[in-house]
Amino acid sequence: MKKVKHVLGISGGKDSAALAIYLHDKYPQLDVEYYFCETDKELDETYRLIENLEVYFGKKIRKLRAVPNSPEDQFDHFLKLYGNFLPSANARWCTRAMKLEPFEAYIGSAPTISYVGIRGDEDREGYISHKENIQPIFPFRKNIWSQEIVNQTLSNKNIELLKDISFQFVPVDKSKQLIKILETPLSFQYNQNRKLNDLLTISISGFNKIVFEFLKTTDYPVSQLEDFPLIENEDVLVRDDIFKILEDSGVGVPEYYKKVEFEVDGQKGFYSRSRSGCYFCFFQQKIEWVWLYENHRNLFEKAMSYEKDGYTWMQDEKLEDIIKPERIKQIKLDQLKRAAKNSNQKSPFLIDILQEAEGEGCAACFI
């Protein structure tokens, strides 16, 4: 059996940082390797977060570069290869070239468990590798397993096997309840999501034990572990828990999440950044572009310099237009309207408001 690698990617965002602290403190027996994929277009605050984490862990976070010997910044190197075609939500070459590919090269063929910081209040799996030797685990969610694992485990053909596992590895009081659910086949009336929720409601750790034992009949990386402490985990962590972990640890919340005051038409409001990653991330909302313009003018001007040959960061507006006085005023007024509808204005962060504004669920370009 090959030794299983445990890895966690630090994106520069709150969730991956909090997960790293959480695993370090709660599961010190796990030898987790931390890595960060560089684009050379990150904010300085991202590197301060990484430095704080390195102090907390007492070890370095490995920095991965897609083209380590290039004389140019990583992003600029690939932008030339793509003929100055800027990345977008529909053409995320930046994620593939500078995040996913260097990560997979770093992992190689070793069986690997990749810990992903998607919270219990999110309904997504994130942008993850699909290599067979890399298995994602989601410690913050009620269901720590990927959709692929759930699909295989709860297949109707495995009913008798899962019942037998439940008898052997789950306490009697829970196994009887779980077996009643397990022996009910999937159907149009009783779909997989309902069955999964019913099993998790009875016992999260019981379901995890069943999955863990079932995976020993497969080639997934977890199958090569004699034990896996996260199968006993019943924590479900949401947004507020993430900020608490960061603050209580002393690592702190990245500065770009914290509210900055602005004034428009005699009214005071707040703006900030809702995501980590490159300062010109195309997932930014317009109020975040205004935040960048007014708080990091030099970076905004660099972002604007990339808009040429008809390529823009936003489909409907150029950066040179977004900074016209009347346009900035309108964007800020729109932000005030959103803030007035939100009940969490006492919070020092604007994450909820900014995410609600345009419904973008991707908090970071790679998790």
Explain what the structure shows.
With 367 residues, the protein is an alpha/beta fold. The chain folds into 3 domains: 156 residues, 3-Layer(aba) Sandwich (Rossmann fold); 76 residues, no CATH class; 104 residues, no CATH class. It has a 5-stranded parallel β-sheet with strand order 3-2-1-4-5. Strands 6-7 form a two-stranded antiparallel sheet. β1, α1 and β2 form a beta-alpha-beta unit. α1 packs across α10 and α7 runs antiparallel to α8.
Topology:
Blueprint: E1 5-9, H1 14-26, E2 32-37, H2 44-57, E3 62-64, H3 74-81, H4 93-107, E4 112-115, E5 134-137, H5 147-153, H6 159-169, H7 172-182, H8 192-202, H9 204-215, H10 239-249, E6 260-264, E7 267-271, H11 286-295, H12 297-305, H13 319-322, H14 325-341, H15 351-358
Parallel strand pairs: 1-2, 1-4, 2-3, 4-5
Antiparallel strand pairs: 6-7
Précis, in short:
With 367 residues, this protein is an alpha/beta fold. Helices cover 44% and strands 9% of the residues.
